[in-house]
Amino acid sequence: HSLFTLNENGDIVPVKCGELKKGDVIVVAKALPKSENNYKTFVLSSLPEFSEFLLIKNGDEWFIKAPHSNGNGVLPNKIVLNEDIGFLAGIWLSDGSYDKNSVLFSVIGKGFDEYLYSILAKLGLKWNIAPDKVTLRINSLPFKIFLQNTLQLKGYSNTKFIPQIFFDAPD
After folding, report:
1. Which among 15, 22, 57, 96 could disulfide-bond with 5, CB atoms 3.0 to 4.6 Å apart, if both were Cys?
2. Which of 75, 63, 79 is nearest to 103 (CA)?
């Protein structure tokens, strides 16, 4: 991971943690900027990334369904940006990835499996454990698009970052 320091000209430059020496200056932000978007609830059917998805009703709740999907391709139409969604984002940032239509979390056995399962159940998501017994696969294109496009959780292990939306999240 990189931090920021001052070079000999007084410019702010990135520096790898392993390159820091005793006495080096570490630059920190005094405040984080707020964007104009302070989301609390996402209505997925109103977002452009879900324009091709079907809106279906089950009981009193509305869901987004991927076209041509089996029952695993659904997600609640309204999702609140709360501690549970923040937890899922943290799991993805630490040990998550994507494949074609799925979200993968390589975190099984790290002490919070039951909490993770309860969040996925609240969202109506089904999962399975890969043969490696470490990776949990959620085969849901809407969930993948929600994380990747709506929440902006992108990148690989060396390029992942915390998206602005989380800095603007309600307390």
Report:
1. 15
2. 75
How many CB atoms lie under 10 A from the CB of residue 41?
10
Bridge partner residues of 135 (DSSP): 106
The pLDDT mean for the chain works out to 87
Residue pLDDT, tens place only, 46-76: 999 999 999 999 999 999 998 877 666 789 9
In degrees rounded to 5, what are phi and psi of residue 50? Answer: -115, 15
- Tell me what pLDDT residue 146 has: 96
* Size (the chain), residues: 171
Contact yes or no for 75/124 (Cβ under 8 A): yes
Instruction: State how far Cα 147 lies from the chain centre.
Output: 5
How buried is residue 135: exposed, middle or buried, by Cβ count under 10 Å (0-12/13-18/19+)?
A: middle
User: DSSP assignment of 21-70, as one string?
Assistant: -TT------SSPPP-S---SEEEGGGSGGGTTSEEEEETTEEEEE-TT--
| Residue range 109-125: mean pLDDT, rounded | 90
Q: What does the pLDDT look like over 69-79, one tens digit per residue?
A: 766 678 999 99
